[in-house]
Specification:
The termini are far apart. The chain is built from 7 helices and no strands. Helix content is 83%, strand content 0%. Helix 2 runs antiparallel to helix 3 and helix 4 runs parallel beside helix 7.
């Protein structure tokens, strides 16, 4: 009898802590929750630096906070290997959107021929990124990495890091400007 009760309790606790499917409705709920948190975060950063108008630095920190918090909450809901990989892939997409946003801001701050230099650098970075992704996917093959489902997470994380690093490079260029 005690054994049956133990098994029932064990199964009940397993179901209580089971991951939930990350449905579009759940993603929308997470996004809405993070949007509210991002506003509080932005306000606390602005207040800390005594800003009356939000600075580009505060906007950047808030944007970064938002996309990373969404990824964290997605993983908290679906912490399977596939769920983590999907969250990292989405995070990379979000980093790429931020990269495009801040690249556009930097491009507008530059004049004619200097814009062309930035465009060339970005095209070259895209070629580098694409080449590096080929290397990342190659070394993630079972014959080199030893395999395992975790390789998808490692590969997605390394690809996401490429985009995040470029985003920070663009932001560092923006930091050079005197406002």
């Amino acid at each position: 009898m005690i054994r049956k009760i133990f098994i029932v309790l064990l199964l009940t606790s397993s179901f209580a802590n089971a991951q939930v499917e990350l449905t579009p409705a759940k993603v929308a709920q997470i996004t809405n929750q993070v949007d509210r948190l991002a506003i509080k975060y932005r306000d606390s950063v602005s207040k800390k630096f005594g800003e009356k108008v939000m600075s580009l630095d505060t906007e950047f920190k808030t944007d970064l906070y938002r996309v990373e918090k969404i990824a964290d909450l997605k993983v908290a809901v679906d912490y399977s290997t596939a769920g983590m990989t999907a969250a990292i892939v989405d995070l990379n997409r979000d980093y790429d959107q931020l990269l495009n946003k801040y690249y556009g801001i930097l491009l507008k701050k530059l004049k004619g021929e200097d814009q062309e230099k930035l465009k060339l650098a970005q095209r070259n970075w895209i070629k580098f990124r694409d080449s590096e992704i080929l290397v990342i996917t190659t070394v993630s093959k079972d014959q080199y990495s030893g395999g395992g489902t975790i390789q998808s997470n490692i590969m997605a994380g390394r690809i996401s890091d490429l985009t995040k690093e470029r985003l920070f490079t663009i932001k560092n260029h923006l930091n050079q400007f005197i406002e």
